[in-house]
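Reading a protein record of the kind used here takes only a little practice. The record below shows the convention in full.

——
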Amino acid sequence: MTHDTSIVQETDCLVEKTTANGLRSDSLAQLHLIQPLLKKEVLNRIGTLDNADWEKILEKLVWMTDRA
């Protein structure tokens, strides 16, 4: 994710800041840059995305993989 929302690509998904998700500013989930990581490398949880944000992200991921 990035807080720089000035350049939006087709594969980005806007996530607006809320108290629940813990973001400091509106951000872009850059889905074209997804990489796996080990659970043990995650030090702590900052926040949680609500169902609406998850749905937007999942729809975009399906769109990205269904384009071929």
In short: The longest strand covers residues 12-15. The mean pLDDT is 92. Residues 1-34+46-68 form one domain. The radius of gyration is 13 Å.
